[in-house]
Specification:
three-stranded antiparallel beta sheet; Growth Hormone, Chain: A; single chain; four-stranded mixed beta sheet; 21 helices
Length: 415
Amino acid sequence: MNKKKIINDPVYGFINVPTELLFDLIEHPFFQRLHRIRQLGLTYYVYPGAIHTRFHHAIGAMHLMQEALESLKSKGYNISDEECEAAMIAILLHDVGHGPFSHALEHSIVKGLNHEEVSLLFMQKLNGEFNGKLQMAIDIFSDKYSKKFLHQLVSSQLDIDRLDYLNRDSFFTGVVEGMVSSERIIKMLEIENDNLVVHEKGIYSIEKFIIARRLMYWQVYLHKTVLSAEKMLENVLKRAKELANKGNDLFCTPALHHFLYNTIAFKDFLNDDNNLNTYAALDDYDVFTSIKVWQNHPDTVLSELCKALTHRELFKVRIQNDPFNPEQINAFKNEVKNLYGLNDDDANYFVLHDELENSAYNSDDEKIHILYKNGRLLDIATASDQLNIATLAKPVKKYFLCVVKSAIGKVKQYN
């Protein structure tokens, strides 16, 4: 069979799958599962077009990695065909460990779960199936390979992952502010002292990249309605887990049942291979099918949350620069207790408050360096002649309050 296939991608057009090993990995059930996990979770409640999957993103990232490697090789940098394939495998599988509605899942039914660590477990399992052919990819992914810049292409403040998801998420949401010139950025990449840097002619593209990332966080990833939906989902899963721990009977698929009715942390993935295999069977459909059924559960908290989430009757959200007044929060909780006849603990499921942080660029992390013709390297925050880039290097913290709508009008402090 001819395994060097072509995939028609809505963002980049035709994408080549250049090696048989990459094709076999794409065909593997672990990777095919990503078809059933949306890239942006419940963001489609705000942007109806945001129904693209992690499969889309991984294929797009593989394509950009191939473009980046070819560009670097054309400039004379020594990268072997084996290293190219390994780097493409690393980026192809970098998100294979994501679960359904990943962040909500990680904060509710599986404690201490990090999708990057789970991705590594999947890669190690695949490495066994493919007779050790993924070892270099695993070393690159884990930053253990001798050429550090290959890992930086996979994971850094200017990595292939971000270049794809900004353009892809912008395309599917219609938020044009997120578009970046990934092609030009890739053409401007250089290697200096084994580190990925950007030629000075690419400085304006990098400025645009940082600004686009900041805007996408406020307009999409941290959009207040998206935040409301995700926090409600998190609370649905927390409540289901609480009921399961008390021995309540809940409808759920076998994969979801395993994680609801057992106390499983990341260490349990290391000790029992069955946990990883069951996780590989878990996707968006398991979660939302259960939520639709839970609408009729006798537990008031679970049923009301599931009805609201299913019918998009989302909590009202306010975001502000200062922490919310505890008296205001307690007033909402008291109103919720009266509305639903709940105790203090159960009322917390309908009144949520926490903080948000948006950091488009972190100067304390591995920096984006601009390479000048004279060999000088400068951090983008210093090199940029735009004052707002230095400002964007500082994280912005805000506070949010989510409250069930039926309690809003009766609490004067909200207005």
